[in-house]
Every structure is written in structure tokens, then in C-alpha cells.
Amino acid sequence: MHRRQLLRATGGALLAASLGVGRAATATANGRVVVVGGGMAGNTLARYLKLWGRRRVDVTLVDRAPTYVSNIMSSLVLTGQRSLSSLTYSRSALAALGVNLVVDEVVAVDAAAPSVTLAGGGTLQADRVVLAPGIAFEPPPGYDDNRMPHAWQAGPQTTLLAQHLAALPASGTVVLTIPPTPYRCPPGPYERACLLADWLRANKPGARLLVLDANPDIIVEQDNFSAAFYGLHADVLEYRPGVSIDSVDAAGMTLHTNQGQVTADVVNLIPRQRAGRIVTDAGLATANGGRFAPVDVLSYASTAAPAVHVIGDSSATTQPKAGHIGNQEAKVCADALLRAFGGTAPDPAPVTNSACFSTITMTQASWLTAVFQYDAATRAMAAVPASSAASNGWSRGNFEDMDTWFRALMSDSFG
Ligand SMILES: Cc1cc2nc3c(=O)[nH]c(=O)nc-3n(C[C@H](O)[C@H](O)[C@H](O)COP(=O)(O)OP(=O)(O)OC[C@H]3O[C@@H](n4cnc5c(N)ncnc54)[C@H](O)[C@@H]3O)c2cc1C
Hints:
The chain is α/β, with parallel strands linked by helices. It folds into two domains: about 5-135 and about 275-350, 3-Layer(bba) Sandwich (FAD/NAD(P)-binding domain), CATH 3.50.50.60; about 135-270, FAD/NAD(P)-binding domain (3-Layer(bba) Sandwich). Helix content is about 30%, strand content about 30%. The chain is built from ten helices and 26 strands. A hairpin with a 4-residue loop joins strand 19 and strand 20. The longest helix has 23 residues, at about 5-25. Bound molecules: flavin-adenine dinucleotide. Flavin-adenine dinucleotide binds near residues 71, 134, 185, 321 and 326. This is Pyridine nucleotide-disulfide oxidoreductase.
């Protein structure tokens, strides 16, 4: 697929999802929804519930932070090409649509009621609760995120890792670790490795980047990342697959792995991941070894608690944990909720899509796109092979398209 076609396909899918509005809006909706988490998935859900349901649905969104900082593009903060403020989004468009905004931490979920309890006191009751809290980390013993920042949740951690990199001594060593799947943004660590290799070459002559991957091989976009790791960046970057982190000595900047001990000047340790804590505490994370929440992908209702829905990275589906997919899951869920309030069944054949751009250098990117369609036999979203494609190599044009795609996605999610 040509990159222009990709952009058209991406925009088309966003538009097609919006066109579901007509069908959803004609239902007689009369329900109360509490959304926990106003990130890529939760913010999109609240926005589309109101765009499609208007006054017939009462929506309250709770997030611990008043604004959202995008993880997408945040690796460019490490190389000084982006600022965190350029990645910060307000929820004022939600307020304008009539969403009740609560800035607080949800500390408990009663899946049967359903209701949520706030750290600041009080309980919010609803007809349906939607959980979109993203991920929690499962760090190895000895981990200290001040010494070995993960920077896998954009914000202070990103700033800290950027400072560590800036202070890297001449001919120093950087280690980046990749957790076992499933984790947030499958290509993310590989694209960060490429970006850092390019930045080190230009800014820290003689420095080396060691990439320790807990997975047996590169898990996504193998052609492009292999060409980058073993060709383009081989003078700076060494890739070691099958390396898991058993424990760390944070003070000594040392990692104890299944293949021996590694010491470095800067460590970007991306820990193993699981659903946000409230999902686990509510007993809903029973898939992937008790890490993520199984859902019915026609509505994203938890398989354990039908009045509670789980969208975004916390859910266990066959789709990647990605912001673009969180946006798509939110629209399927919003449509299903409005139909349920109107007394009708969810769309029996939902389709989602995801586009992904990966930085291969500081100015060039590759891309990958996938479409998923509901498969009634497996009750899962199945990748549609004919609709999936990847770029053959990388280019400056793709890097520019990445910015267009990002702006479209964020504007669709945050208004
Ligand atoms: C470096 C990096 C690059 C990435 N690049 C891409 C990319 O190119 N394309 C792509 O599609 N995806 C990318 N991703 C992945 C994407 O960022 C995530 O998949 C997406 O953010 C998941 O959305 P979410 O809504 O599930 O979680 P989030 O976006 O993390 O939102 C969760 C929200 O819940 C709130 N919250 C959590 N718990 C509570 C609580 N108890 N009470 C109140 N509020 C709570 C948080 O404050 C947060 O606002 C990238 C990720 C990283 C780290």
C-alpha cells in the first residue's frame, strides 16, 4: 500500500467509525456511564458517547490528572525533537459536550453495583462503568525508577531519562530492555532503540546501545527493524534476544539477567506490564497469566462482570495494545452502550484498524497498518490479511505522514 493510500485508509476508518453515529444516535438511550481513565481509550469513549448519544446519556469521566500527556511521540522528547508540553492535551472539549469531569483517583470498583470509589471520598454509581486505566508495571526486584527510568508512561519519567541521556559520558553505554509480550505498543521499544542509536551517533561519539529483548526475536515489523539493527545502526547498536531481567542492583547500575550480568551508564528499563491496578483489584484481570482483562469484543463488557467494560491497554484482546486501537475499541464500546440503553444488541460484526509509524532515524520512519474484523467462530477480532501492510524500508516522507496521522488521531480522541 502506498503511504498516501495508508493515510486515506486511516482517515477513512476514523470517518467510517464516526458514521456509526447515525445508527447509534437513533436508539433511545437513557443511561448513566462512569468512565475511569481519560487517556486514548477513555477520552475517546466519553467524547463519542456524547457526540452520538447527546442528552440521552449521562457521562462522568474520572482521571487522576487534569490533562493528558501522550505516550505516542514521547520517545522524540528523549532526542530533543518534541517537548512534553506539545504532547499535553486538555479535556475541555469533553466539558463542552456536557461530560462531567472529576479529577480524582479511583481506588476501588464494585463490579456488581456497578460503582467506583474515589480517593477524595464518595462513590459514583452508574448503569455501566467503563475502565480505561492503561497499564501498571511489574518491575524486577531491586528496581528504582529514578535510577533506571522506564519512560513508558509519558511525563516525569520521560524528562528523567532525557536528563540521564544528556549526562551520558563520552564512549558510555546505554541499555534498553524490552519486556515479554503482551506489552504497550509492540513496535515502541524497537523504534526507541533506532531513534536512540541515531541520536547517540550524532551526539555521543563512541557511545554504545545494548538492547536486551526478553522475547525470542523482534516481535513486529521484523524486516525493517532487522535491517536497521543489523545494518544501518550496527556500528552503535547491539541487539540480544531472549534476555530476561531477573533482578537489578539500581545503585550499581547493574542488571542480573538469565544470560549474565550487565552494567551500564544509562539504563532504560521497560518493565513487564499488566492491567491498571483497579482492574486487577476488581478481580477482572484473569487472562495472560492474570495480567489483563478478558472482554466480549462486541461490547468490551468484562467476561466476569457484564455491567463493567474494559477498553484500551487493560483489556486482553487479539489486537495490539496501541493508542490507535484504544480509540477504535472506545467507539465500538460507545456504540454498544448506546444500543444497550436503547434495548438493542451490539453491532454483530465490528471492524477496527490500526496504523503505526516507527522512527528508524531522527528524520525517517517506516509504517505498518492492520485491520481487524470480528470472527464469530472464535469470538475474537481477527486480522484481515489482505488489508494489512507494511512499508518497504523507511523514508522522510513517512516521517512527515507520521505527524499528520498523529494530529488526526489526537484530534479525533480529544476534540
Ligand atoms: C513510547 C511510546 C510510544 C507509543 N507510540 C504509539 C504509537 O505510535 N501508536 C499507537 O497507537 N500507540 C502508541 N503507544 C501506545 C499508547 O500510548 C497506548 O496504547 C495508549 O495510551 C493506551 O491507551 P489507554 O487509554 O488504555 O491508557 P492511557 O492512554 O495510559 O490512559 C490511562 C488514563 O487512566 C488514568 N488512570 C489510571 N488509573 C486511574 C485511576 N485509578 N483513577 C483515575 N485515573 C486513572 C491515567 O491518568 C491516564 O490518563 C506508545 C506508547 C509508548 C509508551
